Amino acid sequence: MKIYFGASDAITDKEANLITYFKTFLYWQPEGYYFSEAYKKGHWDGKYYLFKVTKDGVRFPTGLLSFVAGKLRAKGYDLEIIDVRKKEFETKDLVWVGKELRDYQLDALNKAVESSRGIWANATGSGKMLLAASLVQSIGVKTIVTVLTKE
After folding, report:
1. Span 2-83: which CATH code?
2. How far apart are alpha carbons 146 and 32 in whole angstroms?
3. Whole-model pTM?
4. pLDDT of 36-45, one tens digit each?
């Protein structure tokens, strides 16, 4: 089975048994769902499914790709995962004029550029803004940054 993934979602074949299998694990239930009138009347099963069946196949968020792939492999599916993301930028070798980045900041910057997505979870005072500025400079994309403090 082939799974194509882009920047925001992944897509698989549209097999009936695959859809049934996805319903067993690709959902979440809100707290107190059983108090809902729709649930009590049998109009809703209390689950929000994290996939959508479209004319192209079954779509789910790219962030769940490794989880879904693991489940499908455990079920015996032979997978071919195909990256169809478009690289929207090329990194530029620029001279950084600001503070010199620390080793951990350089590692985080390189990982962000390599993977083209991600979340930084750095401690307070670790230089996240400096890291973000160096990322913006290295990819050369116009960017707006909003912050919650004056510093």
Report:
1. 3.30.780.20
2. 35
3. 0.62
4. 999 999 999 9
